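Good morning N.,

You mentioned wanting to compare the apo and holo forms, so I went ahead and generated the holo version with beta-D-glucopyranose. This is what I fed in:
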Amino acid sequence: MKKILSLLCLALFLVSALFLTGCGKDTASAKRVDIFFPAGLARFEASGQTLKSSLEGQGFTVNLQFAATADEQGQQIEKAASDGTNCVVIAAVDSKAVGSSLAKAKEKKIPIIAYDRLPLNTDAVDYYATFDNEGIGVAMAKYVENKFNLKQNGGPYTIEFFQGSDDDNNAVLIDKGMMSILKPYIDKGQLVVASGQTRFQDTTIKGWDGKNAAARLKQLVSQYYSGRSLDIIMSASDSISEGLVDPAAAGYSGSQPFITGQDATPKALDSVQNGKQGITLKKSDALLNGKCIRMIKAAVEGTQPELNDLKTYNNGSITVPSYLCIPTIIDKDNLAEAKD
Ligand code: BGC
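and this is what came out, ligand included:
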């Protein structure tokens, strides 16, 4: 009798344990993912929402927060770490400032996935889902190389560079990619930088902010381009290009420069359609989010992430296992491809 009773108790215990843990499987519904993105940038506002809804569709509980400053973002991460999230997804406001907050999450063994922007000088990152940033600079530059027949000795054309924010590792890589293609043409005189400003520290636009870009353009126009045409503007993002697509506002009176960008924001797509911007790059949310979600699941549920780069993204502390997605170039001829 005693034996029967203890067997019954054991069975009861097993049934309730199965019930409590979701039928023996650790389901995603029990898992909370905290996403920390920069505020005020169309790209991240949109991607944050699509990532959140895809994760929710797969049963995760999602806490999506935007921050305007590195301090605000640090506080958000530390709160989530102490509340006890199951996974942190981070696109840093400032790549170099986020390490100490991420360390607090790492101490609690919370997995950390870097999204699009890589936190620097920290070992508190498990995986990195991004687009090939150096490749983005190369793609923009190659488009210009073709369009302006540079391989066939086209030129001389005037050109200026508007690079991304110097607190973002991506900006440095885009500049590197762009210059790897265009510097030889500058050296040969086929491309003429009238301002002479080619170094990243001279062309970086704080916060990738169009207003800062507009202010720099105004300065360049008054010093170097009054009565001279500016043929090409290598802009690292659509947010920067927003401040450049109406150069008349900066006092420029020549013909419209060919302007680059990335992100395929709604405003940039309008500008491409009406000829104010030459190209943008579509960074598909479906693609990046898919890879990111696989990484989250790998970290949280012990499945396999998909990785395609184990050597490029050394962040000054560790080399972060990554998946690099490839964006699509959008010009007037393939605007329809900008849809996800
Ligand atoms: C992203 C770009 C974006 C820029 C400004 C970068 O980190 O890679 O897609 O244009 O931030 O939002």
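The first helix runs from residue 2 to 20.

Happy to go through it together on a call whenever suits you.

Best,
F.
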